[in-house]
Amino acid sequence: MSERLSVFKTYKLYVGGKFPRSESGRVYEVSDAKGNWLANAPLSSRKDARDAVVAARKAFGGWSGATAYNRGQILYRIAEMLEGCRDQFVAEVADAEGLSRSKATAQVEAAIDRWVWYAGWSDKVAQIAGGANPVAGPYFNLSSPEPTGVVAVLAPQKSSFLGLVSVIAPAVVTGNTTVVVASEKSPLPALSLGEVLATSDLPGGVVNVLSGRTAEIAAPLAAHQDVNALDLAGADAGLAKELEIAAADNLKRVLRPRTEDWGADPGTDRLLAFLETKTVWHPMGV
Amino acid sequence: MTFEYAPAPESRSVVDIAPSYGLFIDGEFAPAADGKVFKTVSPSSEEVLSEVAQATTDDVDRAVKAARKAFEKWSALPGAERAKYLFRIARIIQERSRELAVLESLDNGKPIRESRDADLPLVAAHFFYYAGWADKLDHAGYGPNPRALGVAGQVIPWNFPLLMLAWKIAPALATGNTVVLKPAETTPLSALFFADVCRQAGLPKGVVNILTGDGSTGAALVAHPDVNKVAFTGSTEVGKAIARTVAGTDKKLTLELGGKAANIVFDDAPIDQAVEGIVNGIFFNQGHVCCAGSRLLVQESVQDELLDALKRRMQTLRVGDPLDKNTDVGAINSAEQLARITELADAGEAEGAERWAPACELPSAGYWFAPTLFTGVTQAHRIAREEIFGPVLSVLTFRTPAEAVEKANNTPYGLSAGIWTEKGSRILWMANKLRAGVIWSNTFNKFDPASPFGGYKESGFGREGGRHGLEAYLDV
């Protein structure tokens, strides 16, 4: 009896809650750390990037307006869903990053735990980032954090899953919506994450995942007038500078690339990076 | 019967302006490297007040080196000691507040009532507030022992010269940074007087350096490779240029830029209070306020009543001598700004909005613009979209709260907004929907050192004031 022929997966983008191919019809070869072919991934175009921004903007009102409790529940649900398909992600991360099974397992487990860590932040961040201000007069004065808006995220190039989750979760837990550019060389875990997000009660458009050439997709995102912020985690120094200059056109908030240990305690840096502070005054009187 | 006001001038004798000033670098006043100077005039009379140095790239370099040299000791000083310097500065400002208020009104053109009752008290309060943070940074929510960034390059505007200096210098010094500050070209004097306050306070040399000059000085400062932090308040256009300049560097950047705030009046609002708020919102400081309520959004059902009351109130505004204690609206800061306001107001008329201003005699010398109201303004008009930065109010109308939100947010800016209604739940709903950094409900243009200030979108990023204001100067 011959061995069963496996069924390959067609990897697709995740945009607006749907799984389109690139509008350009282009794909590129993705191979493992040893150079063996893994899959053809969509090679996203500038138009795909713009479509993803439209989807993210459309989702912003609902997601930022959802209760913090609800957003936390949904992030926790993502962790639950991921837990159920650990093996798939372990295999994909092992292939993508050339890791042993045990090391890949550690990455996936850390990524799942990261969703749980950020899930809990949803209804606490306002209490550490905001507060009452004792102004010198008869006024109620309160500062609260609010999401910045649509955040374009260049996911880390090397850490294809833990790094990816470490940049998406802090942006969305506070109510931002995102357009995520997956690791150029290792996009498959990111594209598979889209499938998990689609079944985790996360509204379509909150996270949009594009694969392709980082520089090609990032340029229209950095210049896009309806993108409010840019996370350059996955950009090298040259690209980062170019994108930061383009981002100045509408004063996007820019998080520059830096040396990261994605396995370390994430702290609150990324959580607080894409927040605006709103301060409300009202007179007191009878 | 009408009451006439007798002139009530504040005396100029309290302030002694030298005929010329150098750059304040490393604790000493010195001329610019190439000896260039420019004149600063009083916008209410066009009288030349003094001559100040035009700092060159070499001067910028010298000032940054002085600040760098001072940084090592200043940042290592116990917070409690830095705090005491700042407390000293706050006290000296209080002591010299009459002098500084008169100086500010002379150089800027703002009414003495505002420089005396708003600017100077807020300047002193800002130093007091941040003085208290200097030895409590471990508890500010940025982790244990947060570190200073280094040398801060700060560029400030002409609308609140000394107050913007305080907003920049107080948090920078409290957190252990040293400073090179460039005041605006048209209002350099109060920053130079502040140098003397630093001298009286015994502040170590090089901790604060003041460079007067034009835009080229500011550009050289923000581009200097040994500056670690850039803080700018001014136009959105220049803010974007600065953001491009610092791209690809490690410089931390905060920007406080323009605005086109909506002041939204619902039909249940107390009309008289709303009118006071509208007037304060747009005519305070001649409308030279980035958070000015320059778009009045009034609910259709009360439009006539509100506009009648507003016009009545505008007729009582006294425009004239900034040093007269009864003056409500002072001089436009410069001929250049007057030209910009005039051009935009003319564009308002040309595009079809209806212009109204109270009968108002303007002085013959100096730069003046009467408080002006435009009705019939649409969202497409330039006067509804562009920051005028003058005493010009554009009136638009709305029917529903949702429409008010839509119109208020229909701008690339997002600095401030006002809401006038007696209904609490509506205030909170509106405040939640408005994309702006400061929301004044049933009040407007209130400032406090404890209250974070700053914008959304193209009004910039980062906050000044409060605990939030520390972040801009810490390595966090």
Could you give a quick summary of the protein structure above?
Chain A is α/β, with parallel strands linked by helices and 286 residues long. Chain A contains ten helices and ten strands.
Describe the 3D structure:
The complex is a heterodimer of chains A (286) and B (476). With 286 residues, chain A is of the alpha/beta class. Chain A has a single domain, classed as Aldehyde Dehydrogenase, Chain A, domain 1, CATH 3.40.605. In chain A, 43% of the residues lie in helices and 18% in strands. In chain A, helix 1 (46-65) packs across helix 8 and helix 3 (86-97) crosses helix 4 (101-121). The longest helix of chain A is centred in the middle third of the chain and has 21 residues, at 101-121. The model of chain A has no long low-confidence stretch (mean pLDDT 97). Chain B folds into 2 domains: 12-257 and 456-471, 3-Layer(aba) Sandwich (Aldehyde Dehydrogenase, Chain A, domain 1); 262-441, Aldehyde Dehydrogenase, Chain A, domain 2. Chain B is globular and about 65 Å long. Chain B has 476 residues and is α/β, with parallel strands linked by helices. The chains are: A alpha/beta (286), B alpha/beta (476). At the A-B interface, strand 4, helix 9 and strand 10 of A face helix 8, strand 17 and strand 18 of B.
Number of strands of chain B: 18
Largest sheet of chain B: 7 strands, mixed
Biggest sheet character of chain A = 5 strands, parallel
**Overall pLDDT score of chain A:** 97
Distance between the termini of chain B: 63 Å
- Assign the CATH class of the largest domain in chain B: Alpha Beta
**SS field, number of helical segments of chain A:** 10
CATH top level class name of chain A: Alpha Beta
Number of strands of chain A: 10
Name the biggest interface.
A-B, 35 and 42 residues
